[in-house]
Amino acid sequence: MTELTLAKAITTGLADALEADDRVVLLGEDIGKLGGVFRVTDGLQERFGIDRVVDTPLAEAGIIGTAVGLAYRGFRPVCELQFDGFVFPGFDQVVTQVAKMRYRTQGAVKMPITIRVPFGGGIGSVEHHSESPEAYFAHTPGLRVVACSSPQDAYSMIRQAVESDDPVVFFEPKRRYWSKGEVVTDVSAVPSLDRARVVVPGTDVTLVTYGPLVQTAVDAALAAEDDGVSIEVIDLRSLAPLDEDAIVDSVQKTGRIVIAHEAARFGGIGAEIAAMVTERCFDRLTAPPLRVTGHDIPYPPSELEDHYLPDLDRMLDGVDRVMGVRV
Amino acid sequence: MTELTLAKAITTGLADALEADDRVVLLGEDIGKLGGVFRVTDGLQERFGIDRVVDTPLAEAGIIGTAVGLAYRGFRPVCELQFDGFVFPGFDQVVTQVAKMRYRTQGAVKMPITIRVPFGGGIGSVEHHSESPEAYFAHTPGLRVVACSSPQDAYSMIRQAVESDDPVVFFEPKRRYWSKGEVVTDVSAVPSLDRARVVVPGTDVTLVTYGPLVQTAVDAALAAEDDGVSIEVIDLRSLAPLDEDAIVDSVQKTGRIVIAHEAARFGGIGAEIAAMVTERCFDRLTAPPLRVTGHDIPYPPSELEDHYLPDLDRMLDGVDRVMGVRV
Amino acid sequence: MLTIRPSTDTSTRRDRLSRLIAPDGERLHDPDLDPWVADVFEEQLLALYEDMVVSRRIDTEATALQRQGQLVLWPPLIGQEAAQVGSARALRKDDFVFSSYRENAVAYVRGVSMTDMIRVWRGSQFSGWNPYDVGMATPTVIIGAQTLHAVGYAMGITRDGDDAAAVAYFGDGATSEGDTNEAMVFAAAYDAPVVFFCQNNQYAISEPVGLQAQRPIADRSPGFGIPSLRVDGNDVLAVLAATRMALDHARTGDGPMFIEAVTYRMGPHTTSDDPTRYRDKAEEQRWRELDPLERTRRLLMAEGALTDERQASVSARADAVAKELRDGCLALRPHEPLSIFDEVYADTPPSLRRERDEYAAYLASFDDADGANREAAR
Amino acid sequence: MLTIRPSTDTSTRRDRLSRLIAPDGERLHDPDLDPWVADVFEEQLLALYEDMVVSRRIDTEATALQRQGQLVLWPPLIGQEAAQVGSARALRKDDFVFSSYRENAVAYVRGVSMTDMIRVWRGSQFSGWNPYDVGMATPTVIIGAQTLHAVGYAMGITRDGDDAAAVAYFGDGATSEGDTNEAMVFAAAYDAPVVFFCQNNQYAISEPVGLQAQRPIADRSPGFGIPSLRVDGNDVLAVLAATRMALDHARTGDGPMFIEAVTYRMGPHTTSDDPTRYRDKAEEQRWRELDPLERTRRLLMAEGALTDERQASVSARADAVAKELRDGCLALRPHEPLSIFDEVYADTPPSLRRERDEYAAYLASFDDADGANREAAR
Ligand SMILES: Cc1ncc(C[n+]2csc(CCOP(=O)(O)OP(=O)(O)O)c2C)c(N)n1
Ligand SMILES: Cc1ncc(C[n+]2csc(CCOP(=O)(O)OP(=O)(O)O)c2C)c(N)n1
Ligand SMILES: [Mg+2]
Ligand SMILES: [Mg+2]
């Protein structure tokens, strides 16, 4: 048990994965000497060599496409995409190749590829550096889409992602990279990659979120406690496939749900959860599922990003609404 | 008023658009001499010349990216992507450039680009030729995403799309290309591009769909009538932004909604509609919104595509369920 | 001043191509290519000829099956037999092919069974064979995407310390896609043991190669640091030699190499295509005179190797393979409906299991009384 | 046999570059370039020098502002002044620039005001200026994407029958992206009047150019059918001459041309970067000796053109621009929160209007009694 930042927990997880399996290969722009723009791969090239921690030319389709070939050959590539907004030049290889290869080949060809994406806003950066493109991936059958929110999960989930025989798009909450927490590196007992986690138990409202907003949700639950409202916070961890039962179980108890994410509301993960919960908990719901999300606009310039990002107040406002306090 | 196939209605619309505005330029693979693989641009190059109906090199990012440059220069490019499954190599230019340019430039630079995509299954083809990628675009603020379902709409909507100062992703239901209908070419009186349309009025259940399934829904409504169930069929036409009020008005009347699309259910347009309707019609709903969609799998080989595609029976099964006939 | 201008040859003139067999069947000599086919005598050439005849027969049979409604589609390879057979015969078992949809003669040479070859085109499966059984990946429909896979696979070969090579097959049209160019960047960056094998068959559906490239395609790769060869793709011997040379280059640590095989798609793009809309008979006729089978036959005849007996045995083999194809095709039975839910993931997730179960229940409802009533009611 | 091998020069050695000013300030001669700068006398050279000094001053001032927390980020252009000023000064008003984020000296030359230049880097807007006012598009952050925009714009110029040109600015790293290569394919296919201007500043963040390209970058485009030039990017005169030549080529219907300007990013990638992790002081020192400002200054001194008085006026101008930048920056006021909902569409759709109204009501709730209570309660 050591205290690590979320970023260092991923570094440690990657190092342990490289150590545990010599078929693991890291690919990405600037991941070598620089250690990546967020230093997540810091020191790994020095330790594991340039054949296993590979600086690539500046081309995202190239990164993902060569990872497909490496996977074909039996490797376990871990790709780093530098920022959320730069996933799209590689999107075709993800959607038409990575996601579909197992299905296409009736299981003959595995794609144990992990695609790491630092995502989300709140870091005061320029365009394309603060986005949340997870819904594009989640709508793509064949991919596992996950997001970590704590150092422990960052460690365990990156280990599980690398070990998964399915392709995993691994979202890292970049504005939480420097938050610290205790980490145990024994992953034998941790929940499996596709399970959600109740972070704060509660009885009045279910508050579902993932990635950077989990901490915000926990803070909201604390604040609401003072107002006498008991929020159950669920960290989804896996966005696709969803751990539907975990959400349904909670809503069966609370009868109310608020879903929060930074991505635009329209067609986001929140829509799916709202639809699914309504289907499965219709009679139990005392209020319609409510979404607290980014607006249906491009991510705005950073001076106004606080007006885009769901924060504690907006979450509590959402909670008030499903509680019938505000309409 | 002439009878035209849906494909020919688009051809006519494109010809009239080319005629009406000399800034309209068509770009795409094989759209010249061949007239496109579906012959939608048949005869247009001969009539308008190779500078206005432009065969492009085989590169989708190139098609969309040069269209951005043409739009910058004041042209109105209409791009043809050959099949739904081939939109992804051009996806980056659509998401990061076409969709965001107006916002990025505070309105200074318009992107009046139309991106035509023949979509959907049921034509017994090979991989990547039967997909429904509309949700990827619909989750992208800045784009207008529409789908036509009848020859009349095909004509009017392509005219409106080309005239729109916003970028429009224009989905064409390829398996309905050869269905016929009357077409008037006076578009002054047709509903605007962002409005849904009640195709069959009804009172018991709202059945919302778009593109190729509109005809199926109409057939289902007819069949249900025999069983004494009155279905109101809504053709969305615009998938993003949604004509929310049209859907809400209908559900306020019926209290029940079934949403049908060919795309995978998870994170599809249906999820958004279900979520939105639940938010806005919670007290009126007598059953949870139900989705009749493609499964959460890649589009399967054509010999089994009938087991993937929602058909009349599956729609009626959905209707039965929301009516409480089956559970 | 260092001005680098494109060379003045902007055509893809056939007389600039490396060749070992002239269109009239004459055996030509080329000091660079000859050493690579020094072991090819009559018997070996006959075998190549047989492969080509069989390939054409496969093509004809499949086209017929498509016309008879037995296949959803077929992309004819007629005209490209020399390019495909010559290159594929240069490969070792442990080499690995990443191809596009038209490389059915390559698949045949790699040992793909006829039944496996036809599954995809019957709409039965997306992959006909297990790639690891034959050293050939499932063909890629997205133009250009497989070139990157080949490079990645080659990077894996290097890491494994093997001396095998990966081969990327693609068309002239594919050279315009970003992926194909990125593949060259990556291959050059890592000296990956990969051979880029471009069949320039003059067309991407209706578009002539001149729209994709203003220079001979073989001129493209050198700017990426990848040497290239330009061969007559209708000359099976030259293609064999060039591919052997390129493979050797890759195997011995010299990195990637690029081959442009200049050939012609004598048939339509696919069985859905109508080439009369975009090219004329005269052009087709010109190329028919350069038919890859015919020139090999002429050489063999001139050398007295293609006896009537041998010609008969070649035909018999072609007929047998065609029968295998037809029988294999017709014997294919549709998969069980619920199989569409298989192999989306290594372990089917609970939500997808639920979806499958619901669909199973739905299907079953047609069997029970209620279902039957519903059906009857319509 | 036609084997096209990469030429043997695999380095980006500086002695192979076209040059008009040596690092020590000597005026060199080049028969191809000289005619293009025949009109450049002392006064014109002084103007170029002043542009470069101002550009560096802008860079220094912006870097300082970032360090003081006034900017979210800044991508220094120090070291690339000659490449940017020399090329931008070759342009006409009706030419149109599509650039990446680092081309702030180009923007200055195009006439962008200091306030407009700084908006983006303050996090205030995504576009500082109206592109049509200055003939320069909003810089593109997605690497390589703008190269296609330039080609499309150039296709539009042709259709309008104009003799203007589009210029795509991009870096060495950008040459690896599919988009940049597709841009060359399209430009060549349509003979588009576009100049590809690649600043090879030796790095893409931490990655040396040798990872992106195994050949001099100027070797890439000829294979696409686009002639190229390779110039010393730290030589403002050579860059001016080369760009004028390329623009003339484009304007007169000869199609696209490619320029590799070999230069060096003397500063970090951005103010967030730490170059000590990936390059050494010795290398930086070597390039410092090739400083573009210094060599121009040496030439001007040798010619007696840079009097103390003139040097003083150059500095004064630089200071004035720097002040304009600083004042402009500090005077920027945040936009009104609800403005984030503007210009997503030509007409805001009803659903988005509703979203905006809801958010407006939410914001207002903090002003009313209830809101205040809520706030107080926490
Ligand atoms: C990304 C993508 N865009 C478009 C298509 C549609 N398409 C199928 S084949 C083809 C032409 C390919 O030409 P070429 O690369 O020369 O190969 P050939 O068909 O001649 O063998 C096109 C455009 C596709 N399959 N993938
Ligand atoms: C598609 C994409 N991928 C990654 C990045 C992150 N990124 C920003 S600048 C840069 C390096 C660019 O290098 P180069 O093209 O040489 O331009 P320079 O910064 O040297 O001016 C990278 C990788 C990006 N902006 N866009
Ligand atoms: Mg071809
Ligand atoms: Mg650079």
Structure in words:
The complex is a heterotetramer, with two copies of chain A (327 residues) and two copies of chain C (378 residues). With 327 residues, chain A is α/β, with parallel strands linked by helices. Chain A has two domains: 2-189, 3-Layer(aba) Sandwich (Rossmann fold); 197-324, Rossmann fold (3-Layer(aba) Sandwich), CATH 3.40.50. Chain A is 34% helix and 20% strand. Chain A has eleven helices and 14 strands. A seven-stranded mixed sheet of chain A has the order 3-2-4-5-7-6-12, sandwiched between helices. Chain A has a five-stranded mixed sheet with strand order 9-11-10-13-14, with helices on both faces. In chain A, strand 2 (24-28), helix 2 and strand 3 form a beta-alpha-beta unit. In chain A, helix 8 packs across helix 11. The radius of gyration of chain A is 19 Å and the shape is globular. The N and C termini of chain A lie far apart (46 Å). Chain C has 378 residues and is of the alpha/beta class. Chain C folds into two domains: 5-331, 3-Layer(aba) Sandwich (Rossmann fold), CATH 3.40.50.970; 337-377. Chain C has helices at residues 42-67, 81-88, 104-110, 114-119, 131-134, 145-160, 178-190, 209-212, 236-254, 281-288, 292-302, 308-331, 350-365, 369-377, and strands at residues 3-4, 96-98, 166-171, 194-200, 203-204, 207-208, 228-232, 257-262. In chain C, the strands form two sheets. In chain C, strands 2-3-4-8-7 form a five-stranded parallel sheet, with helices on both faces. A two-stranded antiparallel ribbon of chain C has the order 5-6. In chain C, helix 9 links the parallel strand 7 (228-232) and strand 8 (257-262). The longest helix of chain C is centred in the first third of the chain and has 26 residues, at 42-67. Chain C is globular. Classes of the chains: A alpha/beta (327), C alpha/beta (378). Chains in contact: A-B, A-C, A-D, B-C, B-D, C-D. Chains B and D meet through helix 3, helix 4 and helix 5 of B and helix 6, helix 7 and helix 13 of D. Strand 7 of chain C pairs antiparallel with strand 1 of chain D. One magnesium ion binds next to strand 5 of chain C. One magnesium ion (MG) is lined by residues 171-173, 201, 203-204 of chain C.
